[in-house]
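Worked example 2:
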Amino acid sequence: MNKVKLFFAVLILIPLLIAALIGFRWWQARQAVADAWTNFDAHAPALATTSSLEIIPLYEAASASPDFSSGHGVSYLIRTDSATILLDVGDNPDGLTVAPFAQNMQALGIAWDEVYRAVISHPHPDHVGGLTAWRQRTISFGELPGGLGERLVFVPHVTTYKGAVHATIPTLPAPDIATTGVISYLEAWPLALFAAKGGEQALVVHVAGHGLVLITGCGHPGLERLVARAESLYGAQVVGVVGGLHYTNATAQDVQPQIQILQSRRVSLVALSPHDSGPEALSAFESAFPGAYHTLKVGEAIQFP
């Protein structure tokens, strides 16, 4: 009888201990995220302005044509006066030799030689080229014409990818394209089981005569912190936001505070990624910014101004 009682006691105790451990790790991560935000004091590099900005989704959940590869993930081509930068490489769920983002580049007639450098926003599978790349803590570009060559790849995390630049502070991948530096956040479930705290960087472009445009991968740190970081670093107001903001199950009411942040700045460009925001959130932003909103689709370029 005592053995039976002991057995059931252990059965109850084990999940309680696991829950306590997860809760403690979550609390530690929350403290670390708060400390990282409070103690951030990196100096901004001198960011040049650009007269034009073009953003071409190379991998997204929505597509302008069935001829393009699409799916859950993000890869954007960013063109300014000085350079063309690749932000993230999307997913490759079928393990294709030529990754979907590269196939879409070819279909759009964009030469790989045009890409000056690459930036990874954060190390999630749908941004680094798939689950295998994520498990191996690397980046999978797939087969590229001429290979990666001497191109620098800026990453916000420790990686096994040979030659990657581990840039945690604000950095200039190009004279008129900057990063926010890594912003810590509480990791999303179920990835939180592996690491409770994550880190993500976004790109910032200063369009002459207008202001700053934020280009995000998933926006895990939150719109408030992304906008605050960009404006504090680069001395201008955010006038555009393009990319993921992670409003997966958010209702229209849930995103009203974020909408108000952008309305207070009278933004003239808003384009949210459907890969990590649900239809109701997307519809709320589209309704709030009828003259500024764009739908992000593979192959459909956004030009600003």
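The chain has one domain: 40-304. The mean pLDDT is 92.
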